[in-house]
Amino acid sequence: MTGPVHAIVLGGSWAGMLAAHVLARHLETVTVVERDALPDGPHHRRGTPQARHGHILWSGGARIVEDLLPGTHDRLLAAGARRLRFHEDLVTLTSHGWQHRFPPRQYGLMCTRPLLDWTLRRQILANDRISLRQRTEAVELTGDAQRITGVRVRDTESGAYEVLAADLVVDCAGRGSRLRRWLTALGLPPVEEDVVDVGMAYASRLYRAPEGATALFPAVNVAADHRERKPGRFGVVYPQEDDQWMVTLSCTRGGELPTREEDFLPYARSLRDPLVADLISQVEPLTPVVASHLGINRRLYPERLERWPDGLLVLGDSLAVFNPIYGHGMSSAARGAEALDRALGGSFGPGAAHRVQREISAGADDPWIMAASKDIAFVNCRNQAKDPRLTGGAAARQHYSDMVAGRSIRSPEVCDVVTDVMAMTAPQSDLGSSEFMALMHRDKMRPDLTEPPLTQEEMDLVGLKPRH
Ligand SMILES: Cc1cc2nc3c(=O)[nH]c(=O)nc-3n(C[C@H](O)[C@H](O)[C@H](O)COP(=O)(O)OP(=O)(O)OC[C@H]3O[C@@H](n4cnc5c(N)ncnc54)[C@H](O)[C@@H]3O)c2cc1C
Question: Could you give the CA distance from residue 117 to residue 14 in angstroms, rounded to a whole number?
Answer without folding.
Answer: 6
